[in-house]
Amino acid sequence: MLHIDNLKVFHGPIEAVHGISFSVKEGQCVALLGPNGAGKTSTISAITGVAKSTGTITLKSDDLTTLPVESRIRKGIALSPEGRRVFANLSVEENLRLGGAHQKEGLADCIAEWFDTFPILGERRDQAAGTLSGGEQQMLAIARALMAEPHILLLDEPSLGLAPKIVTQIFKMIGALKDKGMTILLVEQNATQALRLSDYAYLLNNGRIVAEGTAETLGSNDTLMAELTGLT
Ligand code: ATP
């Protein structure tokens, strides 16, 4: 589904990611793990077209490399960004409507589907998004990204700043999306939880992939896990 080849990401003169390659197959949840500053958000920003990069980014058979952000969204990339940026003054439903603004028909059905999948959002449909709890805002940010009906969902640190119990709920939600067949690239510092629902994972450090494997292989590597969980 998504193939990244020899990706280098630049912030002005700084090269933050030094030529990484990885793929996400259809229906898979793939985790991109690593500590602060490893280059995870830079990688996501390059995929969405926000950050300057070289290398190739292919989604299905489309080469996205030179396309602007809007075209990449149209081709099927959706992002739930770090810091769950919802429109605080708009209601839950209005936030979802904005996420589905491209849809001429079927918007109401799409909203109903996500209210069905995430009932807490349905219960709070008229509430201002800014008054939701952190976990609910994260859920809304993910549901809003899904309103674009993407081929792949990019999740940037969905567990960041949430209490452990809420983190478990968010990961359950991501698991439910995977069960629905959604293809997911999950960027996380919380390696233990991320590996639990991922098919494959890449460990990024200092802008390079330093380990990769199935969740089972990486999860059973005690030395690596000790390092990774020390970082969470
Ligand atoms: P975090 O979890 O802290 O967001 P990360 O793995 O997502 O970490 P990035 O945010 O991608 O890491 O940062 C990778 C490197 O690029 C870091 O050294 C960071 O300082 C640098 N960097 C990121 N964004 C910018 C920017 N806009 N301008 C300059 N340098 C940047």
UniProtKB/TrEMBL annotation:
One of its GO terms (biological process) is L-amino acid transport. One of its GO terms (molecular function) is ATP hydrolysis activity. Gene3D superfamilies: P-loop containing nucleotide triphosphate hydrolases. InterPro entries: AAA+_ATPase, ABC_transporter-like_ATP-bd, ABC_transporter-like_CS, BCAA_Transport_ATP-bd_LivF, P-loop_NTPase. Keywords: Amino-acid transport, ATP-binding, Nucleotide-binding, Transport. SMART domains: AAA. Belongs to the ABC transporter superfamily. Pfam families: ABC_tran (PF00005). The lineage of its organism: Bacteria, Pseudomonadati, Pseudomonadota, Alphaproteobacteria, Rhodobacterales. This is Branched-chain amino acid ABC transporter, ATP-binding protein. CDD domains: ABC_TM1139_LivF_branched. SUPFAM superfamilies: P-loop containing nucleoside triphosphate hydrolases (SSF52540). The keyword Repeat does not apply. Signal peptide: none annotated. Residues 2-231 form the ABC transporter domain.
